[in-house]
Amino acid sequence: MARPSRAFPAVLLGVVLAVGACGSSTPSISDPGEILARAADAIRDVRTVRVEATVEGTIQLDLAGFGPPGDISLTGTKLALDIDVGGDAARLRLEVPAVLGMTIDAILVDGATYTRNSLFGDRYAKEASAGLPIAAADLATGLETLGTWLEQPELAPTKEADTSCGSTSCYQVKLDLTPDEITSLVPLASDLGDGSIVMIVLVEKESLRPAGLTLDISAGGIGELSVGLTLRDWNADLDIAAPASDQVQ
């Protein structure tokens, strides 16, 4: 039961990297690096955000813990994450239908982490936590780091045609990446092996806040995946509370 709860901060950090990859009415911007640099300023004082993700495709995974990995379909996988940076709290819901219909719920609040995995029961496990492993400034710093990374001439990001994102219009910044290139930014991606990654970042034209991110991954060591990320409800009020005592083991 402890293993999923220890993974929760890592999940948050992974999501933060994804948020950092995205980003007042302003004149139209044509340079992709400048779009991300301006987005860093737009989210520097963010208090809350909601992140929603979907995954399609297959991944090579050894669920049993022995023998060669096999192809596991992740189609239908969904994640919803509410982050209250100012309140040092977060709430996560992960659904992985292909893995025995598994769902994971996690709540980080009041210095504790509560985690429930449907494969192990319907009650939460509780353990002490150091708190949310990010601060508001980290999101902006992530964008600044990405902007510097994009200045490498071999990366050559391109600004695609503007697109609709919900009720507003968004910039699109596209990168065609090799695993080595993305590993230089995200060392945890070192297991991608051979293949390619196409990343498209969506940034709202008016607010310059992140709206979404898509990743199309083709990697021999991982599989074929398409990941869609949506970011919304910036600075909305959040009510994240610990589960009732009768729901905790």
Explain the overall architecture.
The protein has 249 residues and is α+β, with helices and mostly antiparallel strands. It has helices at residues 2-20, 32-42, 136-150, 179-183, and strands at residues 48-61, 70-73, 77-84, 89-96, 102-109, 112-117, 125-128, 158-165, 168-177, 195-204, 210-219, 223-232. It has 4 helices and 12 strands. Helix 1 packs across helix 3 (136-150) and helix 2 (32-42) packs antiparallel against helix 3. The chain starts with a helix and ends in a 17-residue tail after the last strand. Residues 1-5 have low confidence and may be disordered.
What spatial form do the alpha-carbon principal axes imply? globular
Beta-strand share of residues: 35-45%
Number of domains: 1
Low-confidence stretches: 1-5
**Average pLDDT, all residues:** 79
Tell me about the largest β-sheet. 12 strands, antiparallel
CATH fold title: outer membrane lipoprotein receptor (LolB), chain A
Distance between the termini: 10 Å
What's the Cα radius of gyration? Answer: 19 Å
The first-level CATH class name = Mainly Beta
Count of helical regions: 4
Kindly state the number of beta strands: 12
Q: Could you give the order of the helices and strands? A: HHEEEEEEEHEEHEEE
Indicate the structural class.
alpha+beta
